[in-house]
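For reproducibility, we list the full input for the coenzyme A complex.
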Amino acid sequence: MDFAAQLPTRTVAESRSEMTEIILPNDANTLGNLLGGRLMHFIDLVGAMAAYRHARTHVVTASMDHIDFIAPVHVGDLLILKSSVNRAFNTSMEVGVKVWVENTIAGIHRHVASAYLTFVAVDSQGRRVPVPRLQPEAAEEKQRYEDAARRRELRQKELERKRQAKPRETAMAGTVRPD
Ligand SMILES: CC(C)(COP(=O)(O)OP(=O)(O)OC[C@H]1O[C@@H](n2cnc3c(N)ncnc32)[C@H](O)[C@@H]1OP(=O)(O)O)[C@@H](O)C(=O)NCCC(=O)NCCS
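The corresponding predicted structure, in tokenized form, follows.
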């Protein structure tokens, strides 16, 4: 039986999620700016919301792509995060997250970061499960859908390169490598 064919098809709108956070001193570094790791935590959360809404099951974060911190976020600012699924594959989904800061006094919005995350759908036992297909509708959604396939190819090449490099790296005992 073709289980994938029985899965529903979902739109981008069905996964669309948003989160707003006020930045407090506990989120900040010694200069009063939002910590990068805290921002990544918020990105992971809002990304997972979109993945949950698409998959309607548990999801785990498989990866977060390169992320640039474009502008600082200060204590007292509002952080606005938006996410949606760009493309669903077999058991994984690419989610795009865009983050803005709103200065509460001036009311000005500024783009501060963007990220692509991959989530994998799992059942309550942690076993991977297929995800519904994504049906992009608007031109922008179709563009993101196409781009997501290209990024997946790059990720898979990089994973393969790391797998191939593993035996050589194990031999380099004591050398700390980020991958
Ligand atoms: C993510 C995870 C489920 C992948 O499991 P795996 O056995 O390595 O699975 P596979 O290599 O067969 O890949 C399964 C799917 O995940 C995708 N995937 C695996 N590693 C990935 C990575 N690093 N980046 C993006 N996608 C990845 C594969 O492309 C595949 O997608 P598809 O089913 O849509 O074709 C597993 O590595 C895991 O459980 N990691 C820990 C997740 C976690 O705890 N996250 C929280 C942060 S600590």
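The chain has a mean pLDDT of 93. Helices lie at 3-6, 12-15, 36-55, 139-171. Both points were considered when choosing residues for closer inspection.
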